[in-house]
Amino acid sequence: MTEPLDTFARLLLHQAKVRPDRPAFREKDLGIWRTWPWAEVAGEVRALACGLAAQGFARGDRLAVVGDNRPRLYWAMMAAQALGGVPVPLYQDAVAAEMAFVLQDADIGFAVAEDQEQVDKLLENIPHCPKLKRIYFDDPRGLRHYAQGELMSLDALQALGRECAERDPRFFAAEIEKGRPSDIAVILYTSGTTGNPKGVAQTHAALIETARVLVAFDGFTEEDEVLCYLPMAWVGDFLYSYAQSLIAGFCLNCPESPGTVMTDLREIGPTYYFGPPRVYENIFTQVMIRIEDASWPKRRMFHAFMKLAKRVGMSILDGRVGVPFTDRMLYKLGGFLVYEPLKNVLGLSRIRVAYTGGEAIGPDLFDFYRSIGVNLKQLYGMTETCVTVSMHASGEVRLETVGRPMPGVEVRIADSGEVLVRSPGVMREYHKRPDATREAIDAEGFFHTGDAGYFDADGHLKIIDRAKDVGKLADGTLFAPKYLENKLKFFPYIKEAVCFGHGRDKVCAFVNFDMEAVANWAEKRNLPYTGYTDLAAQPAVYELVRECVEKVNRDLAADAALGNSQIHRFIILQKELDADDGELTRTRKVRRRHVAEKYAALVEALYSGKTHCFVETQMRFEDGRTGIVSADLRIAEARVHGAAAVRRAA
Amino acid sequence: MTPVAERGTGPAILAVEGVSLAFGGVTALQDVSFDVREREIRAIIGPNGAGKSSMLNVINGVYHAQRGSVTFKGRKRHNVDPAVAARQGIARTFQNIALFRGMTVLDNIMTGRNLKMKSNFLQQAVYWGAASREELEHRAKVETVIDFLEIQHIRKTPVGRLPYGLQKRVELARALAAEPELLLLDEPMAGMNLEEKQDMSRFILDVNDQLGTTIVLIEHDMSVVMDLSDRVVVLDYGRKIADGTPDEVRNNKDVIAAYLGVAH
Fold first, then answer.
1. What CATH number does the domain containing B185 carry?
2. pTM (2 d.p.)
3. Which of A371, A420, A522, B179 allows an S-S link to A412, with CB 3.0 to 4.6 Å?
4. Considering its fold, how many domains does chain A have in total?
5. What is the ipTM of this complex?
6. Any chain B CB within 8 A of the CB of A259?
């Protein structure tokens, strides 16, 4: 019997049949990893699906899923899909008001929440979302006294489902029979740098076809291991964990808690890893901090071998010829002494492929991983195209590009420089937004990405920046803010930066330092401080940041095209940019325009020649209340080099 | 949310009667009596030097009162050894954190199980048979406490490297590992910021609600006391000056006088 494996529910049954005893999910609970094989997962999903159906969940209904990566939340998505419904994963750190929009927009009637925190947020939204009738929770802790009729535990739901399945054993299979590949499989809300988020509706066919290409591209098998630590609401997790696991049959590992990811990573030793540059950056920063704290023989050894790795590591990884024999031997020794132990500590020792995407990655960061033998590759894509527009093939990895278009994907560059994409993975529509859909997908079926880019001589796609963000200085030279910011952010001490310069005579910047790294640095110098705001005002910290800025300027001076966009003046913001204050998106990208508006007074001060500026900003605390943070900020000058300095003197 | 009102209405689990305590000529407690009901959260408040910590020390036997008695679970005693009190089911945390700074969080919490370990030193040194089986059981119990207080991420971190708020939480974890019936908390929120206080308040309520532990706590932050506790005892210069629900105490003129001072 060869059933077509064209919906996620059919894929689940297939996996349960062909590899019933292979691990499908793992979760660390009470300090111990627990494993669920595929056959058991199918049983759990069946119980959930039958339970949901008994509660009135019908074909086409939407199921909100909100919480950290937990096996049962993934199963709930599978259950909804089996019934022909549509799971809608929500960002777990969104506040109640942010959830309201998605709950209304997607007409959510049923929701699965991880714990009390998420249940509270959903309950808060019930008055605005009259359709929300049922809320199921995974972790009953703290919910014992909740008397709301909408609430039910997933345990109870599954028990109900098992009863129903016993009465009507054919029901589950029959529901899966009714599924069509053209059905919507999931609605993923894009974080949206402007306005309300948009729901991207993707079909089973689009997701499965894309995931199959990916699985074939890097040869994933049931032997692979993945750690699910990215938000479930992000397309990256849905496609690279959920969809690929259902196709290749590998195991999804759920961390114990968001705080234990690094430990869990080391215990699991994933073979395949996907993360935005920020994650790689955090790991790298931690390594650097710990090395700085190490005894000097270790520090010397680390730096010596990293220098060697930087010289020959990437050539060895790519299998290029022409690396001298002595260097190869030294690299082997380095592997034994430094690279392998380091990878082991980071949980990367079994990595076959690691991907990064979503944003440009700093050159030194990228080289760091590749030089110690981690096969890190860049990919390019977005929710609307099931990610996967282009990707580096192993052995063809180049920092400045995002690789060639994937099989089955057509990429065209518009006259404006915008990248256009046509592929099986392009979304069907924005949910309830025909206007936005028409704007994004043209008559020929090409999706307009909004990114500016071009193909280089080898056919690799190169993305410069968001099309709307690339600007020009007053004298007409190119200004690519993200490029500068990424250069700044590479320094372990700098966490976030926002550069200004479009239409201006020079480039100025806001800087957020990395609290962990700078706190450590301050402690070593016996510099007393009370917190971020206090550190941000200290002259020594300004000096530290100034050194970083000046190093960037030196690099830029060497670049013919970007020599003029050296950073002349900067401010260390008195608070960290935060998604809760609307300054970052939930995936932690800077909302440039919003920041520029919110801190307009500071931007003016940067360009006015003032040396101080007083600001008051509203800040949202983690409990949801708001407060005012005020500070008198110093504006610092940074030395500029070469062409720009000459121009200024003239 | 509407919690079902069931806590703090049971019979008294602890009764303090006529306790007086003096250090030389200094009177710390004078004829203090109050009771604590099962599953209640009972606060002891008062200005500095009112005798609050001394009271806790009398309850778990660190100090021995000159007069008066403490009745715990129906057993009346004049004085008691702290180890005996612990074995009877009284655990506590301290005003100044008393953890082993060089040991990991996990090991610190394991020490809370010490009284329940039956294998002897020799068996533990060999770590075979009964000792390793026992350790597994205790570890499983400790893991539930770690899960309960959400400190998985610092399981293997030495306590000395943790921020203050987390150390307080570890101390609570160690006390909970002993599975106490009565938990004495000496200023569990002192020196914490708002967020840490909220977390700690939630944990105290959860402990009381889900584990059914009776709690006696000393706290200076009045909003915390008023929110958490079922009944409040107020001490001033070693004497009890008020006893009742938070609302009653708040409006008591002696209490107001003790806190704000009176015009002479």
1. 3.40.50.300
2. 0.81
3. A420
4. 3
5. 0.79
6. yes
